[in-house]
Amino acid sequence: LKRAKHTRQAEVYTPEELDKARRRFTLETELRKAIELDRLELYFQPLIDMSNGFVTGFEALARWKDPDYGMISPVEFIPVAEECGLILPLGRWALDRACKVLGEWDKKAGEELPLKVSVNVSAAQFARDDIPNMVSSILRANNTKPQRLCLELTESVVVSDPARAAKVMSALRALNVSLAMDDFGTGYSNLAYLQQLPIDILKIDRSFVTHMLKERDKVAIVRAILSLASALGMETTAEGIETLEISQTLAALGCSFGQGYFYSPPVPADEAYEYMITRMG
Ligand code: C2E
Ligand code: MG
Ligand code: MG
Ligand code: MG
């Protein structure tokens, strides 16, 4: 059990804390096993060009179906992976799997599809891994063009070490990979940095999007992010679009791309292929 560092007195867990600690320990053990046994799955959610409604790409999202515990959300297992270092193999797996799926889709279609795949890179992974080297070797191994890959980073990578973040991001850009700032508006990044970083896309967090038509403040924030992006020469993706009305409003406001249950939830690779093949320009 945990002990206070500088006193002799041992701290004791409350029953809730103990439950939480047990669950975490189990999750960590099971997650390690799931990665080793290649039991994680990558789902794909379409990214829609708001100007014409066509699919332009997909965001790759990790899924973990444990045989005993059932479906475990990435909201729960990604933080565990970050804490225990499993985020490095998990992150590499996600990137590799995403490239392999792109290749499988091209093969099925008999041509190189004009699609981008977006892969999430967590802050802990960004801090610890040599991302540019890792990315270029996985792209090479899969024969994937860097132009087809977008990496989604969060504001926290910038907050924790702005100088290093700028260096790593420039190195990624030099590979011709594009960069998106995920969950934009929920972090605490300094807006002055935004302008100096080689970011292609701002992803508007779904907390501003999903109920934006019922709350005036949210529309105001969405509008502000759209005009900030436009002033900085960046494109925008709105996440969490659940209704036709919101998709129409965002298109009218000039948002570049949309993502959300209104179009499709994240689905397995085969379903994503079927969805895309009838909805491409
Ligand atoms: P994210 O990168 O912001 O991904 C978007 C999340 O919003 C996904 O949740 C997606 O299913 C959900 N979403 C999309 N459209 C809608 C909608 O219309 N309504 C609602 N309510 N939700 C919507 P998901 O798949 O549960 O992933 C949660 C988070 O876990 C992701 O947020 C990302 O931060 C993290 N994550 C998932 N897969 C990976 C991964 O492979 N690597 C890393 N580092 N993080 C991952
Ligand atoms: Mg994301
Ligand atoms: Mg996001
Ligand atoms: Mg989000």
From TrEMBL:
Give the source's domain of life in one word: Bacteria
Q: Which residues form the EAL domain?
A: 24-280
* Name of the protein in its database record: GGDEF-domain containing protein
Where does this protein come from, organism-wise? Answer: Blastomonas aquatica
Q: What is the lineage of its organism?
A: Bacteria, Pseudomonadati, Pseudomonadota, Alphaproteobacteria, Sphingomonadales
